[in-house]
Fold this protein.
Amino acid sequence: MTDRGPGAPVRVALLGCGTVGSEIVRLLTDQADDLAARVGAPVELVGVAVRRPHRHPDLPEGLVTTDAEGLVGSPDVDIVIEVIGGIEPARTLLLEALKGGKSVVTANKALLAEDGAALAEAADSSGADLYYEASVAGAIPLLRPLRESLVGDRITRVAGIVNGTTNFILSAMAASGAGYADALEEATRLGYAEADPSADVDGYDAASKAAILASLAFHTRVTAADVHCEGIRAVSAADIAAADGLDCTIKLLAICERLESGDGEPESVSARVYPAMIPKSHPLASVDGAFNAVFVEAEAAGQLMFYGQGAGGAPTASAVLGDLVAAARNIVIGGRGPRESTYASLPVRPIGAVSTRYHVSLEVADRAGVLAAVASAFAEHDVSIAAVRQYGGGRNGGAGGSGAVRLVVVTHAAPDSALATTVEALGDLDAVRGVESVLRVEDLGRSVSALGVTG
Ligand code: HSE
């Protein structure tokens, strides 16, 4: 970075100009005077790197280039904003920028979750800033509260809905009784789901965000590879109805928890993404459609909820602009933003050793002794049953009966590995015709009431 004269503009390069990038350009232009007043110097867009210039006829003349490397390396750039997404070329470009002392503002959750350490080290080595509020939950101010406002507290859990596409699909299934495929089709038709929805519906997008959240909340480096990830493809209309019967709803949750030591495990963190039943009384249960919401629990602050638009051009650009102003102010006053903090270096607990409760739905023979056999399978694997309900049956009961009934078992908290072996054992029982579904029940501090399941 060059020595700055008083009032010298802060010069900004933009990498990528899709839905988010074009909103950034609009805001930089429309709000130029306000931004200058807030930063203490004009904020000047000096270049926009795109792959296909002909698609951007509205961009100010002379700004567009296909030479992203040249733009990033230019001595006339102070801050690089990246909204290209994906790992490469974004990683190479941002490392180049940071090593050259240019501050970086990025929305790139996949890159941060895979290789955030390299970016943070490059920023540290040159003294540049690295801001990434837009990478998780779009417009919702969440990372700054975790990184700055709550840095004096001890965060115990961050659990949230951080993927709008899947929340739209699950909300549609709950509202209409539709199956997964029909709800996905509707989400695609309305533009909520992409043509290839895998990153969203298989949970990878949420897993990247969970890695970023866990790293900030627990001062520990957590990468996407550390996050246990299951998507929503297997959630059925029957699962949604079963949740409703328990006064629950199913949400794709990103859960980051601080786990105390015990049972041979050290104090650790857990970061996981999966669809789970949550009580309708929990504030996250009423977050519908494409909205995001994140529930944060900290020892002194108690419970906090962050809610808003987690995607889209303008909402994401809002978060980027907030970071841009922070980075620009630091340049003007000669300061630096917060560094990455990973001093705690807690281990990540493997999913097998993480305990939750489960809702297990079985099709079983309708005859005497079946319930005892099923209960034994749970007992043998040390999984404690909280409630059992049987649906249908009776007509073919007794020895030799040929009918089938549905049995729902809700467990107390048990390690994932114990539940997995229980399910295997259930599948081997003669009386069990099929394990129809296994869903986690995350009460998140509230009781799941309909079956009297309270602790
Ligand atoms: N595809 C994401 C979602 C938004 O559906 O919420 C970007 O992370």
User: Anything to note?
Assistant: Residues 313-333 form the longest helix (21 residues). The mean pLDDT is 94. Residues 143-310 form a domain with the Dihydrodipicolinate Reductase; domain 2 fold (CATH 3.30.360.10).
